[in-house]
Every structure is written in C-alpha cells, then in structure tokens.
Amino acid sequence: MSSKKIVSLLPAATEIVCALGLEENLVGRSHECDFPQSVKQLPVCSEANIPDNLSSAAIDIKVKELLTDALSVYTVKREMIKQLSPDVVITQAQCEVCAISLKEVEEALEDYLDKESTIISLQPDSLDAIFNNIREVAAVLDVADKGEQLVEDLQERVDIIRHKLKFMENKPTVVCIEWLEPMMVSGNWVPELVNISGGVPVLAENGKNSPYVKWEELQQQDPDVIIVMPCGFSIERTMKEVDLLLQLPGFSEMKAVKNDRFYIADGNQYFNRPGPRIVDSIEILAEIIHPKQFIFGYEGNGWIKFSL
To answer: With 305 labelled, which of 70, 75, 87, 249 sits at a CA distance of 20 to 30 A?
Structure first.
C-alpha cells in the first residue's frame, strides 16, 4: 500500500485516488472535489476567482476577462499546500476553465515546498486517455496492479454496452449541449461516449475541443435527441437557465422536443469528470438513447426527461 501523501486539485483525480483504495492518503483537495462525500472534510487547497450565482453568460464573460488579462480562473493556496507537505500533487493540463492548470501549480509551488514533490498532470481527450490516466496515477502511487484491475472492471462495463448494441441499426442523432449562453456543444471524450452508447453525435468531434455553435446550426441539424449537460452544473442549476433554450425561436418545433426526447443530465458529477465515473456517464447515455435496451437506474439523479 502506498504511503505517499496526496493533494488532488482535480475532482476526477480525487475520484481516481479513492477508486484505487487510497482515500486515506489524500491530505488536501480542490474547492470542487466533492465525491465521494467523505473527501469534503479534507483541507481545501484552491479557490475560484469567479463569484457564485452568476448566469451562464456572465460566467463566460468573466472567464474570458480573466484569461485575457492573463489572470487565473482559480487560485492555488500555497501556504495550505506547504503545510500539508504532499509527496504528490495532481492537477490537469486539459482546460484553463475546468480546473487548476499545471502551469498554475508549477508557478505556485516552484521552490516553495520544503521537499521534492511529484506533480502529475492529466490531459485526457478520449476514453482510452482517461483509462491511461488511471494507470498513470496508480503507477506513481505504487499501486499499478490496482490501476490495471480498475481499468479492467470499467472496460468490462463498457464492453457490455458495446456488445448489446453490436447489431443495432437504428442510431439516433444526438446533440450534447455543454454551455447554454453562448451555446457550446460537448467535445473531447463526449462524442465518443455517444458513439459507444448507440448514438450519432452531431456538431462536435471525438478528441476535439468543445465548439461554440449558433442556434441556426443546431436547428439545421434537428437531432433526434437533445441532452443538456452544462460544464460544472447540476440538474437543479441547469433548470434555472433552461429557459434560455426554451425561448429560442422554433425550439418547440425541434424533432427532439416534439418527440419528447429532450433531457437534462448532471454535467458536473458525470460528463465533465474524466475519472472512473465516466463509465457511469456512458451508462446514462445508453439509458437515454436506448431506453428499451438499458435501465441502469440513473434516471432522476443522473438525468431527467424535460417535457414542455
């Protein structure tokens, strides 16, 4: 068993560490790490530089202002990390908006800690990359075998879905909306998850960043299924702004809306976290896209159907 002390500045990394059976090695977390619930008691090593309760549009403007001024969306609490004296600090290099970046951690901790610490930076853009991140974290924490076993178990769950859909010919078109104003469609690993779950992703590509899209583009695609999963938003939080979509001209005429195939999913807990629960996200998509084939029990918690 690893004896290394870990500070995780990324919710997905916290979940990886816990899934590897090393929760007791965690000595600090980011302000966003909230799963499993027990990690909430750990010292918080970061804070957001964006006020709470802003609208989607206001968050977008604030983030762009911060990045334009070369300021960070987050602040690393150096003193706290120094006191905790970790052997390993885990962060990410995927997105300056999603979580604390490698650059910020390196700048905050350079020549600051009293001992040599290993910084792991995760940068996944696909399901395989997420699984490789799990292996990488496990290797650094001296539990490579557990990492391999965890990936094997997760892969098995994915294979069950793939196998069940092997001969499925009816694959509906699916759009996953990652931000409401301005509108963005989920990129990175999400199109791949849609593919695995028996859908055809539209307006975004596997492994590519999430693109901004115009409402007219979405109207033109007129997908069979619309799933709203804003980055960092719970279902409840998304419900507060769903009117942004409902008020768009012609929204009620969309095929997905007319056929009662308009859904809201928990982007914060599932789709935006490239850790072990990314497989839960695939199961959620399978339930939504092919409800006759799959019932995993996420409805009401991981996703809801929204009827006009």
So the answer is: 249
Does the structure show a pLDDT above 80 at 2? no
**CATH code of the domain made up of 6-56+66-152:** 3.40.50.1980
Mean pLDDT of 271-288: 97
Give the residue, 202 or 62, on which the prediction is more confident: 202
CB pairs under 8 A, 24+ apart, for 26-32? 27/84, 27/86, 28/80, 28/81, 28/84, 28/86, 30/74, 30/99, 30/100, 31/74, 32/99, 32/232
- Distance in angstroms (rounded) separating the CA atoms of residues 204 and 213: 9
Give pLDDT tens digits for 210-252: 999 999 999 999 999 999 999 999 999 999 999 999 999 999 9
Between 87 and 94, where is the model more confident? 87
Tokens describing residue 176:
């996953």
CATH of 168-305, one of 3.30.160.100, 3.90.190.20, 3.10.129.10, 3.40.50.1980: 3.40.50.1980
Q: Per the structure block, which two tokens stand in for 200?
A: 């055809």
What's the CA gap between 49 and 29, in Å, rounded?
A: 17
Q: How far apart are CA 200 and CA 176, in angstroms?
A: 11
Look at the pTM and tell me if it is higher than 0.90: yes
Pairwise CA distance, residues 306 & 216, whole Å = 22
**Bond before 11 cis per omega within 30 degrees:** no
